[in-house]
Amino acid sequence: MEQRPGSGVIFVGGPVHTMGRSAGAIAAEAETAEAEAEEAAAAAEAVRVDGRRVTAVGRLAELRGLGDAETVDLDGRCLMPGFVDAHTHPLMHGQCASWADLSGAASIDEVVPCGCGATHGYLYHGDGELEDLLAASSAAGLQTATHAQGPDAIEAVLRGLERAPRPDLRHRIEHCGFPTDDQIERMARLAVVPVPQPTQVYRYGDGVRRDHPDLAERMYASGLFRDAGLAVVLSSDAPVTAPDVPMACWSAETRLTSAGHVLGAGARVTRREAFEGYTTGGALALRRSDVGAIEAGMLADLVILDEDPLTVPTDRLPDVTVVETWVDGRQAWPSNRTPT
Known about the structure:
single chain, about 350 residues, alpha/beta, Urease, subunit C, domain 1, TIM Barrel, four-stranded mixed sheet, four-stranded antiparallel sheet, 12 helices, about 30% helix
């Protein structure tokens, strides 16, 4: 579906989660859950798009009064901002179409005989070189995004950034698994953005739990980051895990492994916080102010889901499906909608 010249598009007929500042204000100011729900529903009855951008969010009658517009009937389905996956490898993910599909394996033990759970990576720099590079980049005003897995690697990143603190740059630590409490506090002082992948807790958490029980509960610990005042940002690292947002949010909410163990209850986040990690949080990590929420002036990057992912029972969340994707105000997938 494409907009007619001079015509907008209005989405109406289902729950709308803007995930923006207005939604946060409603949640903070509402005295009861009922009042919050009523106010949020009234504020987001409909969404209007003109051209590439969201024009307005509000009452249907008000939005129709802004000019000619076609209507997209959500028919009970849910409208949300387009998801922002802050760490993914799209070219490699495309290559996977020709690889063996082992996604049905219950654990890595069924695929790799050792079934080991790694809590570290490989250092590609000489002694002190990484710290020098990070300090120089920060001093030059450049945002950095460093892959760091385990306390030793995270320590090297923090030492470098502490030599030239620039909280405004939103330096990132990719993966950021197994940090100590002290390191999380230092990350908060530096306004570092951790970018973990919660689905890996489900896929690989049992191996980590078996091989590194002393560290396992700190695997991609978004709840600990939140408690320290850090942003919740989630991602897939596709193709390491599928870019399946409802599944990732379920993993972040439950912290369940494939064998049914809870891997660090204190590292959980709420359902809404998880989806913020794939909308406003992802946009923050990418330093984008034009995506991640449905607000006037922002790009009309939207998704329509078959159910409301913020209200379905927990065990059904992984089954919620994206049925439409809109990019720059145009339907990108699928492309067979009939205008009304």
